C-alpha cells in the first residue's frame, strides 16, 4: 500500500512536470516556471526512489543508495518550492537575492548528507536509519541536518504562501493556501523526525520503522511508519495539488469570469430584446445576428450589448413618465417588494416602451435617463449587475406587468449582438 502511494505521487508529479516543461518550451520559460518544473521533477524522483520496491532493487548493488538520493531530491524540492513562491511574489531581482542564502544552505546540507552517508558505519545500512541512531553518530548528524533544512524550508513556504494568499484572486488564493497546509505538514514531519532522533539517542533504542528489515509495508504499520511514509505522502500530495491549482489560477479565473459574463449576457437579453424591437438601430450590425456558442470573445459581446442598451435608453427617454416611477415605488414599498430601485426602473422602461408602441406623444420636456444607483456609474461590472436586476424585474415583477405591453418584444432564439 505504501509503495502504491509513493508511485502514484511520483507519477503525478513527473507527469505535471513534463506537461509544464513542454508548455514552457513552446511559449518561453520564466524563473517561476523553471522552479515549478524543477520542484515537480524533484518530488517525482523522491517518491520514485523511496518506494520499497525501488530501494529493494538498488540495495543489491549499493545498500540504501536510494535513501540518499531521495533525501537529497526532497531537499532540492523544498528549495525550489521556496523559489516558486518567491518568484511568484517578488520581482526577479529581489527573489534571486532572497534565494542566495537559501542556496548556500542547500549546498551545505547536501554536502553533509553525502559525507555522512559514505562515512564508514559500524553496520551495513539497510532500511530505516532509526535503528542505528543510538550507535552511529554520523546518522544522527545526517538525520538532523536533513530534518532541520526540511523543517525550515517547509515553514518558510507555509508562511510565505499564507501571507501572499491574502492578496490574490480566488484560485491562486486556494492554491497558495493548499501549499501552506503542505508546508505545515512538512514542519510536522521534520519535528517528528527530530523527536525520533532525540528519543533513540536518549533511550539507546534500536527499534527502527517498519519490520525487522526497517521496511514499512503499510502507511500506518507503526507511528514511525506514519512519520516516514504517511506524513510525507500526504504533504507532497497536498503540495502537488496546491502547485497545480496555483499554476492554473490565471486560466481558471479567466474561465470563471467569462462564465459569469456569459450568464450576465443571457440575463440582460430580455431587456435588450425589448429595446432592440423598439429601436432596431441600436444594433450596429443588424444583418449579422448569430448565437454565441463559446466563452471566447464574450467580454466584447457583453460590452457591446451594454452600449446598445444605453443607446436604447437614451432613445426611450422622451417617452419616460416620472409619475409612473412614483406610483410603482409607492405600491411596491407598501407591498414590501424587494430590489425596489430595479423594479421602479423596469416599470418606467416598460411603460415608456408601451407608450411608444401606442404612438403616444413624447413628453415635451423629457427627463434624462436615470443613472444607475450610486456606486454603479463608471463601474462596468456594477452597471452590468444593475442591468441584470432590471431585466429580471422587467420579466418577473408583478408591479411591472401592468405596464408591459404584450406586443412589445418577441421570443428570441440565439443571442443577437
Notable characteristics:
mainly alpha, 417 residues, elongated, disordered C terminus
Description:
By secondary structure, the protein is mostly helical. Helices cover 69% and strands 0% of the residues. It is built from 14 helices and no strands. The chain has helices at 2-27, 31-50, 52-58, 65-89, 92-118, 137-165, 170-203, 223-247, 249-267, 269-278, 298-316, 322-334, 340-357, 380-396. α2 runs antiparallel to α8 (223-247) and α9 packs parallel to α11. It is elongated.
Strand content: under 5%
Number of strands: 0
The number of helical elements comes to 14
Structural class designation: mainly alpha
List the uncertain runs: 210-214, 286-290, 407-417
Amino acid at each position: 500500500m505504501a509503495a502504491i502511494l509513493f508511485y502514484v505521487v511520483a507519477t503525478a508529479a513527473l507527469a505535471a512536470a513534463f506537461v509544464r516543461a513542454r508548455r514552457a518550451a513552446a511559449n518561453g520559460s520564466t524563473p517561476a516556471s523553471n522552479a515549478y518544473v524543477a520542484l515537480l521533477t524533484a518530488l517525482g524522483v523522491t517518491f520514485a526512489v523511496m518506494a520499497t520496491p525501488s530501494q529493494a532493487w538498488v540495495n543489491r548493488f549499493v545498500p540504501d543508495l536510494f535513501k540518499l538520493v531521495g533525501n537529497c531530491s526532497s531537499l532540492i524540492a523544498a528549495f525550489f518550492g521556496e523559489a516558486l513562491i518567491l518568484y511568484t511574489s517578488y520581482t526577479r531581482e529581489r527573489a534571486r537575492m532572497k534565494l542566495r542564502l537559501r542556496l548556500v544552505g542547500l549546498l551545505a546540507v547536501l554536502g553533509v548528507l553525502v559525507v555522512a552517508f559514505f562515512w564508514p558505519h559500524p553496520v551495513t545500512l539497510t532500511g530505516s536509519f532509526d535503528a542505528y541512531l543510538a550507535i552511529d553518530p554520523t546518522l544522527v548528524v545526517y538525520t538532523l541536518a536533513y530534518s532541520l533544512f526540511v523543517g525550515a524550508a517547509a515553514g518558510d513556504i507555509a508562511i510565505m504562501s499564507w501571507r501572499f494568499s491574502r492578496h490574490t484572486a480566488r484560485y491562486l488564493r486556494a492554491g497558495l493556501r493548499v501549499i501552506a497546509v503542505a508546508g505545515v505538514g512538512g514542519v510536522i514531519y521534520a519535528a517528528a523526525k527530530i523527536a525520533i532522533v532525540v528519543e533513540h539517542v536518549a533511550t539507546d533504542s534500536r527499534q527502527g520503522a517498519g519490520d525487522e528489515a526497517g521496511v514499512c509495508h503499510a502507511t500506518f504499520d507503526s507511528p514511525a511508519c506514519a512519520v516516514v511514509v504517511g506524513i510525507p505522502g500526504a504533504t507532497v500530495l497536498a503540495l502537488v495539488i496546491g502547485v497545480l491549482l496555483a499554476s492554473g489560477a490565471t486560466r481558471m479565473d479567466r474561465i470563471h469570469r467569462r462564465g459569469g459574463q456569459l450568464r450576465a449576457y443571457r440575463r440582460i437579453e430580455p431587456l435588450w430584446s425589448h429595446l432592440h424591437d423598439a429601436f432596431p438601430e441600436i444594433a450596429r450590425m443588424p444583418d449579422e445576428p448569430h448565437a454565441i456558442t463559446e466563452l471566447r470573445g464574450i467580454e466584447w459581446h457583453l460590452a457591446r450589448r451594454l452600449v446598445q442598451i444605453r443607446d436604447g435608453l437614451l432613445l426611450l427617454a422622451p417617452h419616460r413618465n416620472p409619475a409612473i416611477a412614483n406610483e410603482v415605488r409607492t405600491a411596491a414599498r407598501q407591498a414590501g417588494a424587494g430590489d425596489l430601485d430595479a423594479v421602479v426602473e423596469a416599470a418606467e422602461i416598460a411603460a415608456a416602451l408601451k407608450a411608444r408602441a401606442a404612438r403616444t406623444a413624447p413628453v415635451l420636456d423629457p427627463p434624462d435617463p436615470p443613472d444607475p444607483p450610486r456606486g454603479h456609474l463608471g463601474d462596468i461590472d456594477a452597471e452590468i449587475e444593475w442591468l441584470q436586476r432590471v431585466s429580471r424585474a422587467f420579466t418577473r415583477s408583478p408591479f411591472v406587468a401592468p405596464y408591459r405591453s404584450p406586443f412589445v418584444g418577441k421570443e428570441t432564439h440565439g443571442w443577437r449582438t
